[in-house]
Amino acid sequence: MLAFREALAEMKWQAKRWLGDAVECLDEEGEEHVVGLENLYRRARREERETWPALIADFLRRIHAAEKAAQIDAKLADVADQLMLRIGPSMIAVADKLKVWCRPLEGTSLFVNLVIDQPDTMSYVTEEMMNTSNQPADHWYEHALANLRQRTSPENLEVVHSESGISLCSTGDAYDATRSLLVEMLMPQMPDAGCLVAIPSRDELLVLPLTAEALPHVHLMKLLAEKNYRSAPYSVSDEVYWVRQGHWQAFPMTIRGEEITVRPPDEFLTFFPKPNDDPETTQ
Hints:
Elements: H1 2-11, E1 14-18, E2 22-26, E3 32-36, H2 37-44, H3 52-72, E4 83-88, E5 102-104, E6 111-117, E7 122-124, H4 127-131, H5 137-150, E8 157-161, E9 166-169, H6 183-186, E10 195-201, E11 204-209, H7 218-231, E12 240-244, E13 247-250, E14 253-256, E15 259-262, E16 281-282
Antiparallel strand pairs: 1-2, 2-3, 4-6, 5-6, 6-7, 8-9, 9-11, 10-11, 10-12, 12-13, 14-15, 15-16
Helix pairs in contact: 1-3
């Protein structure tokens, strides 16, 4: 917090309102900016503490540049080729003018946002920009999804655990978690039962194709999701999801010491029935 205040002073910004895990700031021109603190701290803690004020000030400059660019390119038609999608938790509540457009990712507690991708940063598409675009939200959503497809290849998904078949997509372009929307493109030989997906952070997509051989290893997805969610910047979710033919469902697993309890959805048991018809499995 001290480093953040020092960075604000260097930028000649003011902290208008503290929102718990975010700060509503005013820049030199009196424009409002909402800065999330959790991801900023996750980035900063990897560096020496004496560098934090400079690191945070640089982050604030990037925010300012991104939001300025968004104001210049306020017409979505002008930036259609830069539109991308971002998956994450719900956004911090802000003033109506800055309210970010989103739609729920059905079957999860997550949301999908539209963003304008720029060389060094990105900016979120606001509801105001959407409302003045003269096109329905589905139009821009599909356009952004097409842009993501152009940047995605099955080669982006690599097996990282041969025994289980767990694969990882981590290109580092800030859209790996979003590639979970294209998981069947990434894995053309998808089993009929689909796959388990974990997206601990924006730069990590874990996929486990569901086969009989993979079942003894499903708990690894939860272990990886929780571990990486706690440590990675830009965290998304510590949950595991069952994805089949574009349909998402939570795949509940809990970890208590050495015990992991798996409670698959009822529909899952049509592909992998248990002899005792017990939907709960403890490993």
